[in-house]
Prior knowledge:
Elements: E1 5-6, E2 11-22, E3 29-30, E4 46-56, E5 61-64, H1 78-85, E6 95-97, H2 103-106, E7 110-113, E8 118-121, E9 127-131, H3 134-141, H4 148-151, E10 160-163, E11 166-169, E12 173-177, E13 186-192, E14 195-199, H5 207-211, H6 222-239, E15 242-244, E16 253-255, H7 256-263
Parallel strand pairs: 5-6, 6-9, 9-10, 14-15
Antiparallel strand pairs: 1-2, 2-3, 2-4, 4-5, 7-8, 11-12, 12-13, 13-14, 15-16
Helix pairs in contact: 6-7
Amino acid sequence: MVTLLTFYIMQVIPLSEGSFTIDGSKQFIPFDTDADNLKERNRGSLLVEIQSFVVRTSKDLLLLDTGLGFHDQHGVLQIHQLMHAAGIDPLEITKVLLTHLHKDHAGGAGILNNATGKFQPSFPNATYYIHEKELSFALNKGLPSFIPDELEFLENNDQVVLLGDQGTIDGYIEYQISSGHSPFHQVFWIRDGDETIFFGGDEAPQLHQMKNRFVAKYDHDGKRAMELRQKWWEQGKQEGWTFLFYHDLKSPSYTASQANEMAS
């Protein structure tokens, strides 16, 4: 079942691909939270949810990161299946906002064209937004965190806009380089009317990391990521943001009103 989270103007649709464990091998292994035992997985395995978000604004149908890129035996992308289940045609997506290009966040950005043997945009009517240095970094860095063969279509593509360190898209989507989880990671604020939705990708992946001073060993700069989370959490509570969490098993979204209620 797909959950629709409706605010005053904007609507958020989480697209959950399920729960997975990941260890030093960077392989995402499906995990059944009702039947599987985390202790039986490799030492140091993390349990995460993978969930992109569709956000319907007064101007656009946005997609925030694109999932793992898994597909069924017929080659249909899982993220496309999830959209159809929510009543969304992938052709309707107008903008794809990518925080970074790790394979669990950008795997569904492209789809293989069997006729050409090359990847092409999974969302042909959308404009993709990526930090200007992230693409070259991903292609040069390569496996296991990035899959260059699946990302090359983003180069010299008219559908792709390469962003600088900070700015605004169409007057209402603010972006800023964050550089905590990875060197060229970026985060987004979507401001429509009086509402603000914050999407922090892997800088703000789970609710508990926002509320605790947590330094992750897997981050490029764990201290910076922790400090940014604390800053955003406090600012978000003051300004009434809604946070979207890409890797949270229980809380795909969290509003500032909830945070303030807990504090009172």
